[in-house]
Amino acid sequence: MTSLVTSSSLRAENISVWFGERQVLKDVNLVFPANQVTALIGPSGCGKSTFLRTLNRMHELIPSAGLAGAVYLNEQDIYSEAMDAVSVRIKVGMVFQKPNPFPTMSIKENILSGLKLSGRKIKDADELVETSLRRASIWNEVKDRLSDQAISLSGGQQQRLCIARSLAMDPEVLLMDEPCSALDPGSTRRIEETISELAESMSIVIVTHNMQQAQRVSDQTAFFLAEEGMPGGVVEFGSTEQVFNGPIDQRTNDYVNGHFG
Amino acid sequence: MARALANQPWRKANNQRRFEIFIASLIPLPLVAYISISQQLNPILSFAALFLPMQLIAASIVGYHAYGRRGVGDAVLVVVTFFFSAFVLILLLSVLSSVIIQGSRAISWQFISQNNVYVSPTTSLDYGGVGHAVVGTLIVVAITTIAAVPLGLAMAVYLTQSQSKTRNLVRTFTQALSGLPSVVSGLFILSIIESTHMGRSGFTGALALFPLMLPTVARVAEEALKLVPVDLRYAALALGAPNYRAFFQVILPAAKSGLLTALLLGLARVVGETAPLILTMNPSSSTSLNPFSGGMSTLPTFIYNYLASSYETSQARAWGAALVLLILVGFLFGLARFLGKNKSIKSKASK
């Protein structure tokens, strides 16, 4: 029973980010339409992950962090007084670079942890667990050992478990921060298939260093770059087809063709 | 199987080398024994002064024969490590054995359960015991634990989870407090007793133990919480958890065994403390369950009072009390470990 939720659009306006005195991002404007997969590419240290964390207010957990600009989820500013970080993070899920299942919980408890942690009632636990695990394409591998500890799974399985954990919250937007960087090609392929299926019911923003992956999974691509000593920003933003095959900016061309970075 | 072995590119020490190592580790011992007996040296002294160098030389020769110069380094490291481990083990066993041997003269069920009323230095060991001191120790340590453990945990939470600027100040003071000599803590409470005329009791004893237990619990718990990867906290927060739920449902369970260690080390710090209790509690020979007034004995103060006596039976009682204290500590540790076991999850590493 995969409910086709009407997914929401996300829009970042003039996002600038500081860590202490140092500005790391300047005037980023990006739109993430519903049911689209957006890839954020660019060399290390250009602010992609930092930008991603501003989209679900994980950014503000870093003590010295500063922010200017606005992020609109369904035309509502997530940094406004009316919204709090907790309700934003319930709607905007996140998958981290390193798989981080909760080590003290079983596979099943990990899936249900999001609901428990956000203080919501769990109605049909078994069905929710199965649906979430199926959507993350890991159900067949773990259905016979749901009460095993989550850390007994392999790295690729753990990452898909973390995706399933986010999906159990039924988010409107899913942020993925290099979800495949620690995984083998087989697990990577399965996660990419998962991403394509998920895009039917939510919008996805994925940070990746893998050019082929960006081309395979995304509908649109944003290329981030930080010049020497300058804050990072978006050099080029458009459809994936255009960014990879007919980039307007010379720097984008150099990067996607592997001439630097 | 045999073929696979023959084709291995490297092999562990072959039989001849094993034989050499065997000989090298066996020869020094009888040699040292022979020298010390024939020269009538002090056996312990000769063992310490002769055995280590001889074992080093023997191991070095074998090591050099096998691997050249780096073999000597390896051999020296192995022998020194082994020697000092054995030294610590012997030290521990001799402390334990002396308490057990001396203490077993007095110990019996009646010694653990009865109190010391109507017992004079000439009373036979068949009468009277340390039951009152066991109860006293449990009451005093329990009061201290009830106060110090929640506060210590709260301090550890503050030190690890908050971003506040006064953290470092609190940490520095905690570290300074953990260096507080126990007798000074006792003197401090004693000065309060004398200025307020509140009277000595089990409670004042617990007060004197409190500044000793608190920093130990706080520091060890802080280390335990620090070991929980920050990834887990982020994962919980990214799922929409408020800070307190992330802490109670994710961070705390992950740090459970470390926090238990904090409790155990805190207990270990205070359960044998003598000086502050001598200053802040009046000894008693009868069993008292009231920590707020009257005298109360604890095992350490009982040992202190009875060991000073010149009577044979009193000294035997002191040793017996020391053995009871050891058993009590062992029991508390075992209990805490048992309660800390995680039973909710099958921890099988499945393939």
Describe the structure.
The complex is a heterodimer of chains A (261) and B (351). In chain A, strands 6-7-8-3-9-10 form a 6-stranded mixed beta sheet, with helices on both faces. In chain A, strands 2-1-4-5 form a 4-stranded antiparallel beta sheet, with helices on one face. In chain A, 33% of the residues lie in helices and 25% in strands. Chain A starts with 9 loop residues before the first strand and ends in a 5-residue tail after the last helix. Chain A has a domain at 10-101 and 173-256: 3-Layer(aba) Sandwich (Rossmann fold), CATH 3.40.50. Chain A is α/β, with parallel strands linked by helices and 261 residues long. Chain B folds into 2 domains: 14-103, no CATH class; 131-340, MetI-like fold (Orthogonal Bundle). Chain B has helices at 2-7, 15-26, 28-38, 43-67, 69-103, 109-113, 131-161, 167-178, 182-196, 202-226, 230-238, 243-254, 256-271, 275-280, 299-307, 312-340. Chain B has 16 helices and no strands.
Explain the layout of strands and helices.
The complex is a heterodimer of chains A (261) and B (351).
Chain A: E1 10-19, E2 22-32, E3 37-41, H1 48-54, E4 65-73, E5 76-77, H2 85-91, E6 92-95, H3 107-117, H4 125-135, H5 139-142, H6 155-167, E7 173-177, H7 185-198, E8 203-207, H8 211-217, E9 220-225, E10 233-239, H9 240-245, H10 250-256
Parallel strand pairs in A: 3-8, 3-9, 6-7, 7-8
Antiparallel strand pairs in A: 1-2, 1-4, 4-5, 9-10
Helix pairs in contact in A: 3-6, 4-6
Chain B: H1 2-7, H2 15-26, H3 28-38, H4 43-67, H5 69-103, H6 109-113, H7 131-161, H8 167-178, H9 182-196, H10 202-226, H11 230-238, H12 243-254, H13 256-271, H14 275-280, H15 299-307, H16 312-340
